[in-house]
Amino acid sequence: MPLIEDGLTQHFTLHKLAQVADESAFFREVGPRIRGVAAGGAGKADRALIEKLPALEIIANFGVGYDGIDVKAAAERGVIVTNTPDVLTDEVADLALGLLLATVRQIPQVDRYLRAGKWLEKPYPLTATLRERKVGILGLGRIGKAIAERCAAFGLDIAYHGRSRQADVPYRYYDNLLAMARDVDVLMVVAPGGAATHHIVNADVLTALGPDGILINVGRGSVVDEKALIAALRDRKILTAGLDVFEDEPRVPAELIAMDHVVLLPHVGSASVYTRNAMGRLVVDNLVSWFEGKGPKTPVAETPWPRK
Ligand code: NDP
Description:
With 308 residues, the protein is an alpha/beta fold. It has helices at 2-11, 23-29, 47-51, 71-77, 89-104, 107-115, 142-153, 177-183, 203-209, 226-234, 254-258, 273-291, and strands at residues 36-40, 58-62, 80-82, 134-138, 157-161, 172-174, 186-189, 214-217, 240-243, 262-264. Helix 10 links the parallel strand 8 and strand 9 (240-243).
């Protein structure tokens, strides 16, 4: 983003790895002087990259999800990792509710129907409803809570699953995802990616969600077993799905694209100018604050500050 580039060049010497022609020469000659990394989007900061930068002190990630960064490798080296929490929470929660409504009431399909001139022939068939639905939120964190507040305003019943029960929330807790899936008919995925959540939404969970069930995923594609999801949608084991994230982005399985009863978005949860600018400013602020000796503004849990 120009906002990030401008912000960084005001304070630092900026090198753009994506534009480097000879990477091995770059790491040999410039690598030893690199003290900070701004990462995000397609830019992964894996162990190999971290090891090539002996003077590295901080990696500032653009985004709240940081599964593209090897935090373990960073922590071992004492490298701080920061992300962009809170500034995108409401935007992503808004999108999640939009996606849920679009999916259950078939808003994109109805729009296509009108444009194709079919309204002139007959009214659009009646759709499923959001009324009287029970929503199970997988990942009642910052965004999950903002989604829950919105669901409550829509008059929906709310439950959640995470690794631990949370004090001070009025929603029903399930320590078992499968048990929650059995009891709800909307499963809202907003958990982070990574090994611990890989494919936890599997064929059994989808079957438990049931033939009237709706899966919404605004968390990470890796949380859902995409092959099992395609099979469940094909065999009508669940009603429909609204997906903002996929396992191998930006590649989306042809089977999903061919299905008319799903709603697919290209990972746009936080993608408004307003929110992306706020995220960009936080990336710059983390780096500036660190190099001014004031510590990171939003370090991730694995690399806490002050150091433990
Ligand atoms: P938080 O860290 O605030 O919340 C994450 C939640 O997930 C916590 O409630 C946590 O609960 C739960 N969780 C973590 N690990 C597990 C696990 N192994 N099993 C079950 N639950 C788990 O993060 P945010 O709410 O700020 O963001 C959530 C995610 O949303 C991000 O990590 C990112 O992947 C995604 N995201 C997607 C965007 C998009 O554009 N679609 C934009 C922004 C974020 P507990 O600790 O109790 O397990």
